[in-house]
Amino acid sequence: MRTVEETGITALPVRRVAISGASGLLGSALRGGFAAEGVTVLRLVRRPASRAGEIGWNPEASPAIADRTALEDCDAAIHLSGSNVAGGVWTDAFKRELTASRVDTTRTLAIALASLERPPRVLLVASAIGIYGDRSDELLNESSATGTGFLADLCRQWEAASQPAEDAGIRVVRLRFGVVLSREGGALGKMIPLFRVGLGGRLGSGQQWMSWVSVNDVVRATMFALRMPCIRGAVNVTAPNPVTNAEFTRLLARRLHRPAVLPAPAFALRMLYGQMADEALLASTRVEPAKLQAAGFEFEHSTLNRALAAVLD
User: Which CATH code for domain 12-312?
Assistant: First the structure.
């Protein structure tokens, strides 16, 4: 990766960062990355703060953050919290939960940051490539039109909810994450036990595109976007070489030295998961990280083989 100095752009100095969702997969990885650089991390927690470095907040209360002075003089805020879209069947009640946990909390935090006397210079908000919908073989970048369906609508609302911060002059970066590869959790964490006992296989036809990224590159890309003042708006956080689900299955099985001969038929996935099967498991989303690459970011794990080796070995 080119250094910020090599780009000719003055970097944003980072000393204090506030993170919501700091105990999740991405939040934990980011905290480790910041700690390695001596950056102070303040954790936004959904309970009264009980230890140093915590800020209690309740997005359903007014005010959401009782002691907003704790957020003053933060260089950046990163909002990662939200219910897992794969955490259940998409009933009407679960859809409302997803919307509240992502859209409502983002709006609440954006308003709170905008009201500070000394707000952070940048707010990074999690989003997802699900905003593009099911697009077959179309190559998608940040300027591509968004898609249709519940997940795409949810992502649009999620991203729009950060507008109050942008209106207040805070630079807002909307991180559209692909499938994050980590053995600690996420999609890959669920796949590994099945593949290890020979129960892995492609989903449906396997021809749908998967846009993936290693958790290490998520940390590096997030910190890069935070420091680069030229980066704003939607940013695809995916490796530059997406693969089909069939290819992903083949490479994962080979890395684990196991067969992958038990495909999950599309009809069975629809029976089990309903709408989520079509929009999350069988949808084809072929994404390129155009903004990151244009700004000079270089992926450490640019190919799936390299990423799986780093994650699994």
Answer: 3.40.50.720
